[in-house]
Design brief:
Layout (H helix, E strand, L loop, with lengths): L1 H6 L1 H16 L1 E2 L9 H7 L10 E2 L2 E2 L5 H18 L3 E3 L5 H12 L5 E5 L15 H4 L2 E5 L10 H11 L3 E4 L10 H11 L2 E5 L4 H5 L12 E5 L10 E5 L4 H12 L5 H14 L2 H23 L3 E2 L8 E5 L7 H10 L2 E2 L1 E3 L13 E5 L1 H6 L6 H16 L3 H15 L11
Parallel strand pairs: 1-13, 5-6, 5-7, 7-8, 8-9
Antiparallel strand pairs: 2-3, 4-10, 9-10, 11-12, 12-15, 14-15
Helix pairs in contact: 3-11, 4-11, 5-10, 7-8, 12-15, 13-15, 15-16
Protein name: Serine hydroxymethyltransferase
EC number: 2.1.2.1
Catalytic activity: (6R)-5,10-methylene-5,6,7,8-tetrahydrofolate + glycine + H2O = (6S)-5,6,7,8-tetrahydrofolate + L-serine
């Protein structure tokens, strides 16, 4: 970064420090990943200089000869990769993408149904502290206390009783396959719009490692990072019937000009996701997640729903004698980055919950495979034991071992001296 280093050495040093941190730690926050060098380059171009309110061929500023082609390329790649009628690649992130759904299909006060946040849903699916729960009437469904899985019979009963206009499926801490066909049947029965939020699993869907909502959901929202391994942005994909309403909701309903440098990064990521290597990557994510879940279970970790079908694992640490927050903080000091998280029917407060949430997408990008997962589980178990004993030296030792392992696994966009 010669230009930045010369102009602002303080900021350049901070970015360098973050790059080293990402290199030396097992990054297991389920919503994070590493983008490729090509995505980094596309996202840091002169496209950030250009304003482009509107859509290709219908802009409010001149000079769109190349931007129109870039956005059209991203749209075409999204349509082909996911097999959808229409794609909008302009949303700034996942939450605005979901807000566009509300603007397109609901009026203030209308009912919207989504998974309860403590059960694994997302804030923007109608939770009380979100605008979506303040401006609309939320209807919530849970997971079974016995299985930790969604009970579609309960979902149907609630939907028939409450008659929401929109139903969300998907969430932020859902470790199991989502039954899109089952949700679609319920939505059709009450005439609701079904929205599949696949922000966490979009890369798995693209790589054939998770069933697709296409053909079941009327609208699909997703971020473009996480398992899809693109820049921090979002997309909305729809049937032809709903394309105009969604486009109008994004612009001019919620946003001004799109972030063209992000659109370019999305286009690159979608091209990468269409390659055979990405399919292998998606399936390896799931293989790693299942292997890690098995290894954690063998070490006495209680996993929500008993395991995982995707990239994500949710563990209840009550039996370990430690809360999720102090465990996550200790694991970070041990070179293992994840987040504390509520678990279904948690008896602790959200800011000090019982669980931790972790994922395998970033580890898989670095090249780790199933045979490394027992070691990861062993480090996690040892770090939590060290936290309980207030053994800072033990945490430091694990962090050194983690860094030594990762020295053999390249990080896209960064090379340690």
């Amino acid at each position: 970064m010669p230009g930045l280093t010369a102009a602002d050495p303080q900021l350049a040093a901070l970015i360098e420090g973050e790059a080293r941190r990402q290199h030396d730690k097992l990054r297991m926050i389920a919503s994070e990943n590493y983008v490729s060098q090509a995505v980094l380059e596309a996202s840091g171009t002169v496209l950030t200089n250009k304003y482009s309110e509107g859509y290709a061929g219908r802009r409010y500023y001149e000079g769109q000869q190349f931007v129109d082609q870039i956005e059209t390329l991203a749209i075409e790649r999204a349509r082909e990769l996911f097999g959808v009628d229409h794609a909008n690649v302009q949303p700034y992130s996942g939450s605005p993408a979901n807000l566009a759904v509300y603007l397109a299909f609901l009026s203030p006060g209308d009912k919207v149904m989504g998974m309860s946040l403590p059960m694994g849903g997302h804030l923007t699916h109608g939770w009380s502290v979100s605008a979506t729960g303040k401006w609309f009437t939320p209807v919530r469904y849970n997971v079974s206390k016995e299985t930790g899985r969604i009970d579609l019979d309960e979902v149907r009963d609630t939907a028939l009783r409450e008659r929401p206009k929109v139903i969300f499926c998907g969430g932020t801490a859902v470790p199991r396959i989502i039954d899109f066909a089952g949700f679609a049947e319920i939505a059709r029965e009450i005439g609701a719009v079904l929205v599949a939020d696949i922000a966490h699993i979009a890369g798995l869907v693209a790589g054939g490692a998770h069933p697709s909502p296409v053909g079941h959901a009327d609208v699909i929202t997703t971020t473009t990072h996480k398992t899809l391994r693109g820049p921090r942005g979002a997309m909305i994909m729809t049937t032809a019937e709903h394309a105009a309403a969604v486009d109008k909701a994004v612009f001019p309903g919620l946003q001004g000009g799109p972030h063209n440098h992000t659109t370019a990064g999305i286009a690159v990521a979608l091209r990468e996701a269409a390659e055979p290597a990405f399919r292998e990557y998606a399936h390896q994510i799931v293989a790693n997640s299942k292997a890690l879940a098995t290894a954690l279970t063998e070490r006495g970790f209680a996993l929500s729903s008993g395991g995982t079908d995707n990239h994500l694992i949710l563990a209840d640490l009550t039996g370990k004698g430690i809360g999720g927050k102090p465990a996550a903080q200790a694991l970070d000091r041990a070179g293992i980055e994840l987040n504390y998280n509520t678990v279904p029917y948690d008896t602790r407060k959200p800011f000090d919950p019982s669980g931790i949430r972790l994922g395998t997408a970033a580890l898989t990008t670095r090249g780790l495979t199933e045979e490394r997962m027992p070691q990861v589980a062993a480090w996690m178990d040892a770090a939590i034991d060290a936290a309980i004993k207030d053994d800072e030296a033990g945490l430091d030792r694990i962090a050194g071992e983690v860094a030594d392992l990762l020295a053999d696994y390249p990080m896209p966009g960064f090379a340690r001296d």
